[in-house]
Amino acid sequence: MTPAGVRQHLPRTGPALGVDRSARARDWAEIQERMLVPLYEAVHERLEVGRGTRLLGLGCGAGLALLLAASRGASVTGVDSGARERLALARERLRPGHAARATARIIEGSPRDAAPAPAEPAYNLLTVFEPAGCATGDIEGLEERLAAATPLTERGTPVVLVGWGPPERCSTSSVLRVATKLADPLRGGGGLRRARRDDLEEAAQRCGLRPEGSGRVACPFGYADMDSAMRGMLSSGLFDAAVEATDQAQVDKELTEALHPHRRADGTVWMPNVFRYLIARTP
After folding, report:
1. Is the Cβ–Cβ distance between 190 and 182 less than 8 Å?
2. For 219-237, how does the pLDDT look when each residue is reduced to its tens digit (9 = 90+)?
3. What is the pLDDT of residues 84-128, one digit of tens each?
4. Phi, psi of 116, deg, nearest 5
5. What is the DSSP letter of 116?
6. What pTM was estimated for this model as a whole?
7. Is residue 153 within 8 Å of 126, Cβ to Cβ?
8. Residue 57 three-state SS
9. Among residues 118, 20, 35, 123, which one has the least CA distance to residue 74?
């Protein structure tokens, strides 16, 4: 919804046929990814991210959360097994040449590929800003990544997990249902599920983490016009399976209809949302 903030609510699929992946990546970075900036900043402030922070970000995408942490003086490493086009943008954002970005790394692969070199210290902050808990299988995928990443951290390292707030406080939920409805014939009925209050805590505990605190942050999705809203939502990748199951014209039609109730008199599109974060600790 990286999201932003919507990318992981449905299981990953390949890009839809005929999609310009570079254009979608740019739309993600320029339109959608910024929607979760209030969440990133709230977490960074609460955990006092700055010099001395050695951050590992899982599912880093185009790297905006890493950029914000680096601007505070943190040493950041991002890892993602997803779209190379987004990772290319992350590398561009965090390229060497600026003091605050000199220790940034972007890695394509699994968390194990981000292991510090023998002479390097372990990470002391682990973040997973992709919202989890609303799609079949996404909690299991989160746990697999945590199992691979937590051995790379110091004892007592804070781990940040993110999920959607209650559906009644997330206007975008109704829009995402379009993706689920249209993709069902292709994806065997998988899709969005109602997030449960303790999803994140239960996942953390199954991974041997100790929940310590949580918070909620308002992250409205706001767009200058309907075209920007369409491009932002499509850039999430959540509608790719729907395009494959039907076609782009059908997805565009139903997505436009779903966004229409959120269009304001001045032409802007506004969808209030609340996201929840959990802070847990490694053993």
Report:
1. no
2. 999 999 999 999 999 999 8
3. 999 999 999 998 765 455 589 999 999 999 999 889 999 999 999
4. -60, 150
5. P
6. 0.88
7. yes
8. strand
9. 123
